[in-house]
Write a structure and sequence with these properties.
Strand content: 15-25%
Radius of gyration: 14 Å
Largest sheet: 2 strands, parallel
Number of domains: 1
Number of helices: 3
Strand order of the largest sheet: 1-2
Number of strands: 2
Helix content: 40-55%
Length: 78
């Protein structure tokens, strides 16, 4: 079965990545041929509402958000 990959999103990314972790998101995009749409940091918070607010804040500040939403077919940016 062919599943089209629109892009790659890396989550749970460490706040202090080692060399391999630092390079991995870009390597995944390069090897897969799909664009790297975002890298989301690890968040130790258990409160889901706070976690969602943190992710939205990251998305609002990242200029790649519009590209990510367009690639996913989600329309306009936040």
């Amino acid at each position: 079965m062919d599943i089209p990959v629109k892009g790659i999103i890396v989550n749970n990314y460490p706040s202090a990545p080692n060399k391999a972790e630092e390079y991995a998101p870009h390597m995944l995009g390069s090897l897969s041929g799909a664009p790297l749409l975002g890298v989301f940091p690890h968040s130790p918070r258990l409160d889901q509402h706070t976690l969602v607010e943190e992710i939205v804040s990251i998305l609002e500040q990242d200029p790649a958000t519009a590209l990510m939403l367009r690639e996913l077919g989600a329309g306009a940016a936040l």
